Amino acid sequence: QVQLVETGGGLVQAGGSLRLSCAASGRTFTTGAMGWFRQVPGQEREFVAAITWSGTTTFYADSVKGRFIISRENVENTVFLQMSTLNPEDTALYYCAVDENDCQGSGCYVDPTEFHYWGRGVAVTVSS
Known about the structure:
This protein is mostly beta strands. Helices cover 0% and strands 48% of the residues. Strands 2, 4, 5, 6, 9, 10 and 11 form a seven-stranded mixed sheet that branches. Strands 1-3-8-7 form a four-stranded antiparallel sheet, with no helix packed on it. It starts with a strand and ends with a strand. The mean pLDDT is 93.
């Protein structure tokens, strides 16, 4: 059974940094990607970043480009989201997810309905 467990959330002041981790267990993934999404109550789940399991390709939402970095640790099947220069608009519940399908071209890994497995989420709160 696939499990995704997010850690690293918390409360931080605006301008600060946090690093989220997502550990995947139950299977070894060789295709597709792991992504991070976030959701504010009452709003739709929003794409944040994704990285292919090969680790060679990354994707970012425009709102986090230059501030967030996604990376992966192959041996431990873990993906990280380093978040810097955080602002109150980044406050949300952050989820990691796995899409097992490879994607080519533009618009890859941004649609949450295409992801097959989800973690329970971790809260990030940025105070002003």
